[in-house]
Amino acid sequence: MKRIVTATVINQSGVLNRITGLMTKRQFNIESITVGHTEKEGVSKMTFVVNVDDNAKIEQLIKQLNKQIDVLKVTDITDQAIVVRELALIKVISNAQIRSEISGIIEPFRASIIDVSRESITVQVTGNSDKIEAILDLLRPYGIKEMVRTGITAFPRGSQKSVTDLKQYSILN
Amino acid sequence: MRAKAKPEAEAVTAEMTGADVLIHSLKKENVEVLFGYPGGAVLPIYDALYRSPIKHILSKHEQGSIHAAEGYARVSGKPGVVIATSGPGATNLVTGITDAMMDSLPLVIFTGQVASTVIGTDAFQEADIMGITAPITKHNYQVRDVQDLPRIIKEAFHIATTGRPGPVLVDIPKDVANKTISPDYDSTIHLPGYQPTFSPNILQIKKLADAVGSAKKPVILAGAGVLHANAGKELVAFSEKHRIPVINTLLGLGSYPGNHPLFLGMGGMHGTYTANMALYECDLLISIGARFDDRLTGNLDHFAIHATVAHIDVDPAEIGKNVPTQIPIVSDAREALKKLLEIESPLPDTEDWRKKLTQNSEDFPLWKKSSATEFLPQRVVELVHEYTKGDAIITTDVGQHQMWAAQYYAFADANRWVTSGGLGTMGFGFPSAIGAQLAFPEQTVVSLTGDGGFQMTLQELSTLQELNLPVKVVIMNNQTLGMVRQWQEAFYEERYSQSLIPVQPDFVKLGEAYGIQSFKVTNEEEAKAVFEEAFSHRDPVLIDCRVSGKENVYPMIAPGKGLHQMIGVKP
Ligand SMILES: Cc1ncc(C[n+]2csc(CCOP(=O)(O)OP(=O)(O)O)c2C)c(N)n1
Ligand SMILES: [Mg+2]
Question: DSSP assignment, residue A107?
Answer without folding.
Answer: G
